[in-house]
């Protein structure tokens, strides 16, 4: 299961080492619902060292504002606590995989 993050438990991503892939979404967002399985599929292909998670912007509006998440869905890839890449809109597992590969280099 992919963990959910809010303001109360996101510090491990912001201050952590390594690569983390975080999907920002909302329950009312139709493109988010339609593409959720693509992200879930991609996560199964990531190396074990890559952390993955989801942020419901309705439950974590401060995080959404902090990272300027205005359109949904959006996936942020963090490397050593800093935003490394941003992928907007529904995407395929291969797009996420390529971005994670680049972050691991």
From TrEMBL:
Keywords: Disulfide bond, Electron transport, Redox-active center, Transport. GO terms for molecular function: protein-disulfide reductase activity. Residues 1-105 form the Thioredoxin domain. InterPro entries: Thioredoxin-like_sf, Thioredoxin_CS, Thioredoxin_domain. GO terms for cellular component: cytoplasm. Pfam families: Thioredoxin (PF00085). Transmembrane segments: none annotated. It comes from the Bacteria. PROSITE patterns: THIOREDOXIN_1 (PS00194), THIOREDOXIN_2 (PS51352). The keyword Cell inner membrane does not apply. This is Thioredoxin domain-containing protein. It comes from Morganella morganii (Proteus morganii).
